[in-house]
């Protein structure tokens, strides 16, 4: 037998269970019986209370009538009823006549007679034709009998589909004494339902709990030998056990009682299934010996502990309650198991002979079936001890199956964080009842999507998954603000550093600290602490890159980990109130008072190497390519990947750009010259030194930047690097040769050692289909795994790309659209058409651009942008290189709020300075979401026009060391046509 695979698990759709329900009941009784029945007029309230006590949902409603004539009128009026319950005295039309009329005209409605069975009532029942009455019950004033009737009928209605179709288990009850089964059924259901409520503690959220309850074992109620045998033959593969009287009828019709019918039933069943648990019950204690001789249990009906003995039989023989491993030779308890996690631990440690004793009797699968864990139960029942070459192989198989099931059940769901039951197999959990925030919602959606499309193990040797994640919901943020009195910061004008100081000096709620401790005991890797505000990653306002993300290294000391993690969480909370965040919220027409912050805490993808932690590669991919080149089409999508942590990608550093449709056609790798000039120069890694994580508004405080030559020592380099052969002026795809290392990802993109392009194609296509819009995803890959282990593709984030419809069209052959005489003209552009109301252009002064001065230039444009905002004006912004790059050598490192009033942004190359567009970054995401016109041009290569001389000749409205603002008396003609990839600005 090979190793188990999660692909072996059969999908069980618990939504399909219990499809037929009793929701409307017609109650026929006299006014006196109604008063007696209701005990102060609250029978419906009693039923609701019974349902609530047993954690059941959807209690039925009752319609009451006082006679058989009224009942028939209601039925003839067209009202729908699922069940008719009638008392004995209902006026001139007796209950037997009413039952026949109902059977003739509405044969599908169950008809139940309830009565206190006095001698006179019993005599009349015996003499009457009761063939149209489905069941008779002895009423003693307890509402739990009505609940048992409802559940018994629902079990009968759903038995075939649920038991044979899905695998729900059943208990066969055989009894024909009205008084006895009337007292017995309510208690039996109470035992089963309460036991089932214990089982559902393993469910990860309320939805799973409700669905699991539908999987509780059913009770099949038989009143004769023939009926019992019919049930047995049909459902014997799914029977947990049988509870049977000894004396009852043989045939369906009323007749003589066979005082040994139960013994015959027991012989026949045990002859067919020797291990079937059976308990015989009788008022005749002599039958105890008969039961023992056949290997059945026995309960004396007159026992004072009848119900306790029955509950003990159900727990011990029907695999309810705890699973107890006994030594079969000594009878000594070896291990007691309450849940699946404890079962895994027990299988790891119990002696081999005890394990094989229980597997030979299929007791493990029986216990799993009773708990509604059908997929795992199916798998274990399908194998026997002889299936395996050795007991150790069987033990390995069972452990692998349990772990795989637990992992699968933890995927694609948002689990409630319960400290007592949280474990390493839960991939996504939420602490708190508030909102998850946009980023966490997207992550939860990803988990659900991966599960729905079966993408976790679609690619051999690769595990596609989300990182283990804990989300602190927004109510924790509210509590933190309130308990520490930080509300005043919302209205204060404070420096970011002062805000952070206030937050880090405050206490996290005790519940958060408690949950963090449990979470930390189940994670092994460093952690990323990321923002997930209510406004993040929503359509048209993604808030990408606005709030802080901190990375926390692992430490062996739990208290130290709590301090570092708490510091990071408070830093994320504080970033809501930072100056840049306030400006962005205001620019997006939102209110700071409405913003709430959830926090995503997740394991970082990667491995440790020489005191640093990082993945093999990180990347951003978009399903829509705004700048296709060569054979690329917009719908093919585009990806940017980098060696190391993803900070380089999302903040606009030099990365490798490729289309997932054409992974072997990479412009940057088309010539040795381009490889040397345009491939990755630096990489980021997390320092594993805890002292590096200091309180700072810079969330990258403990990230280390390495020049690629200095990163050559890292193990992951062999997966991503090629080597420059200076002697032969060529590039070798081998990373092992001597020479300068170039980050080309040749082994992945050219030789497909990792199916990155295929994975991205599928994820982008499915993501766009599911979100009904183009999407951007962030991901990380770890190939540095032990031999034989799966490589990891971590799906980190998904957000929609705002793809608004272009508002109007421009004839580009018209005079006003020609480049001659234009201030600005580009043939690489993104935008939505005509932009009106612009009279100002802010541009870098001719000859003033210095790469070493870009941080200062960012401060200057921030001041000019603030001035424009105060004047209520928008503008066209022109500058060299990448706007918003985190690498100041690639462009001016502004953050979005520093240029928030710009309505057109142009990246204009200089004669000695040309950089690719900012596609794939947080900056680019915000730019497209706000509908800002975006152009790239390189006039010195005759690719576009920028008439700086014309602007230089005009007086400046405002001027700094590096910038000029020029204002025109009339609106400029501005048109940015993303459809045709052209843009123009002219007088």
TrEMBL record:
Protein name per UniProt: Phosphoenolpyruvate synthase
Gene3D superfamilies (UniProt xref): 3.40.50.2300, ATP-grasp fold, A domain
UniProt keywords, alphabetically: Phosphoprotein, Pyruvate, Two-component regulatory system
Any GO MF annotation of the entry: ATP binding
Organism: Rikenella microfusus
CDD domains, per the entry: REC
Positions of the Response regulatory domain: 33-153
Keyword rRNA-binding: no
Record InterPro entries: ATP_grasp_subdomain_1 (IPR013815), Bact_response_regulator (IPR050595), CheY-like_superfamily (IPR011006), PPDK_AMP/ATP-bd (IPR002192), Sig_transdc_resp-reg_receiver (IPR001789)
Any one Gene Ontology BP term: phosphorelay signal transduction system
């Amino acid at each position: 037998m090979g190793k188990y695979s999660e692909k072996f698990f059969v999908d069980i759709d618990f939504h399909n269970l219990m499809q037929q329900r009793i929701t409307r009941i017609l109650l026929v009784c006299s006014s006196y019986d109604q008063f007696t029945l209701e005990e102060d007029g609250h029978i419906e309230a009693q039923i609701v209370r019974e349902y609530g006590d047993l954690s059941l949902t959807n209690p039925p409603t009752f319609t009451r009538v006082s006679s058989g004539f009224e009942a028939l009128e209601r039925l003839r009026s067209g009202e729908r009823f699922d069940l008719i319950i009638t008392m004995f005295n209902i006026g001139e039309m007796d209950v037997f006549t009413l039952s026949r009329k109902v059977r003739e005209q509405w044969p599908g409605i169950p008809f139940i007679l309830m009565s206190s069975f006095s001698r006179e009532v019993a005599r009349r029942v015996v003499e009457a034709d009761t063939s149209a009455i489905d069941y008779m019950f002895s009423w003693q004033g307890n509402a739990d009998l009505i609940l048992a009737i409802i559940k018994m009928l629902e079990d009968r209605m759903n038995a075939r589909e649920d038991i044979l179709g899905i695998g729900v288990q059943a208990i066969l009850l055989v009894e024909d004494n009205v008084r006895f089964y009337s007292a017995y059924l309510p208690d039996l259901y109470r035992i089963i339902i309460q036991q089932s409520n214990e089982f559902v503690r393993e469910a990860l959220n309320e939805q799973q709990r409700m669905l699991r309850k539908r999987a509780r074992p059913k009770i099949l109620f038989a009143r004769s030998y023939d009926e019992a045998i019919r049930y047995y033959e049909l459902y014997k593969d799914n029977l947990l056990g049988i509870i049977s009287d000894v004396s009852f009828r043989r045939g369906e019709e009323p007749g003589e009682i066979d005082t040994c019918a139960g013994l015959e039933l027991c012989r026949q069943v045990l002859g067919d299934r020797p291990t079937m648990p059976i308990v015989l019950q009788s008022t005749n204690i002599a039958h105890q010996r008969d039961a023992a001789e056949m290997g059945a249990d026995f309960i004396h009906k007159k026992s004072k502990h009848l119900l306790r003995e029955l509950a003990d039989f159900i727990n011990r023989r029907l695999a309810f309650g705890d699973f107890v491993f006994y030594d079969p030779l000594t009878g000594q308890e070896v291990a007691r198991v309450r849940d699946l996690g404890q079962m895994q631990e027990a299988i790891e440690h119990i002696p081999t002979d005890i394990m094989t004793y229980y597997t030979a009797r299929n007791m493990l699968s029986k216990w799993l079936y009773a708990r509604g864990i059908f997929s795992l139960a199916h798998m274990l029942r399908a194998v026997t001890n002889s299936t395996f070459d050795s007991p150790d192989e069987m033990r390995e198989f069972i452990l692998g199956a349990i772990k795989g099931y637990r992992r699968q059940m933890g995927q694609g769901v948002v689990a409630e964080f319960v400290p007592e039951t949280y474990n390493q197999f839960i991939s996504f959990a939420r602490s708190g009842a508030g909102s998850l925030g946009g980023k966490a919602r997207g992550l939860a959606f990803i988990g659900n999507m991966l599960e729905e499309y079966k993408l976790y193990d679609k690619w051999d040797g690769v595990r596609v998954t989300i990182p283990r994640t804990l989300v602190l919901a927004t109510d924790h943020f509210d509590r933190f603000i309130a308990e520490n009195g930080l509300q005043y910061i919302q209205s204060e004008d404070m420096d970011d550093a002062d805000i952070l100081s206030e937050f880090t000096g405050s206490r996290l709620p005790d519940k958060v600290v408690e949950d963090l401790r449990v979470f930390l005991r189940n994670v092994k890797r460093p952690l990323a602490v990321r923002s997930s505000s209510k406004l993040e990653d929503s359509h048209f306002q993604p808030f990408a890159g606005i709030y802080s993300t901190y990375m926390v290294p692992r430490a062996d000391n739990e208290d130290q980990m709590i301090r570092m993690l708490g510091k990071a969480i408070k830093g994320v909370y504080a970033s809501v109130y930072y100056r840049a965040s306030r400006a962005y919220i205001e620019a997006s027409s939102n209110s700071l008072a409405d913003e709430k912050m959830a926090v995503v805490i997740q394991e970082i993808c990667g491995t440790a190497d020489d005191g640093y932690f990082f993945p093999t590669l990180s990347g951003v991919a978009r399903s829509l390519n705004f700048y296709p080149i060569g054979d690329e089409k917009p719908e093919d999508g585009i990806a940017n990947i980098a060696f190391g942590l993803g900070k380089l990608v999302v903040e606009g550093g030099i990365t490798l750009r490729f289309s997932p449709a054409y992974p072997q056609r990479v412009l940057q790798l088309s010539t040795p010259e381009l490889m040397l000039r345009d491939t990755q120069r630096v990489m980021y890694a997390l320092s594993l030194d805890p002292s590096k994580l200091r309180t700072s508004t810079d969330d990258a405080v403990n990230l280390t930047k390495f020049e690629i030559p200095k990163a050559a020592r890292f193990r992951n380099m062999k997966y991503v690097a090629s080597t420059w052969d200076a002697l032969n002026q060529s590039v070798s795809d081998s990373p092992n040769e001597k020479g300068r290392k170039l980050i080309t990802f040749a082994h992945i993109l050219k030789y497909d050692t990792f199916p990155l392009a295929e994975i991205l194609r599928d994820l982008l296509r499915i993501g766009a289909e599911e979100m009904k819009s183009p999407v951007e995803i962030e991901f990380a890959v770890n190939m540095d795994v032990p031999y034989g282990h799966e490589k990891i593709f971590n799906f980190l984030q998904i957000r929609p790309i705002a793809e608004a419809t272009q508002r109007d069209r421009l004839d580009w052959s018209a005079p006003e659209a020609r480049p001659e005489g234009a201030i600005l003209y580009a043939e690489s552009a993104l935008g939505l058409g005509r932009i009106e109301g612009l009279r100002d252009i802010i541009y870098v002064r001719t000859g003033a651009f210095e790469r070493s001065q870009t941080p200062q230039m960012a401060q200057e444009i921030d001041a000019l942008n603030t001035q424009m905002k105060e004047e209520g004006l928008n503008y066209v912004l022109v500058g060299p290189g990448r706007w918003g790059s985190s690498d100041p050598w690639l462009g001016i490192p502004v953050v979005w709020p520093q240029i928030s009033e710009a309505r057109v942004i142009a990246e204009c190359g200089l004669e000695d300075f040309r950089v690719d567009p900012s596609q794939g970054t947080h900056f680019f995401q915000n730019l497209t979401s706000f509908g800002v016109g975006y152009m790239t041009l390189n006039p010195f290569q005759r690719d576009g026009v920028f008439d700086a001389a014309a602007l230089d000749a005009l007086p400046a409205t405002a001027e700094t060391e590096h910038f000029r603002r020029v204002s025109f008396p009339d609106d400029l003609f501005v048109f940015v046509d993303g459809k045709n990839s052209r843009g123009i600005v002219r007088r």
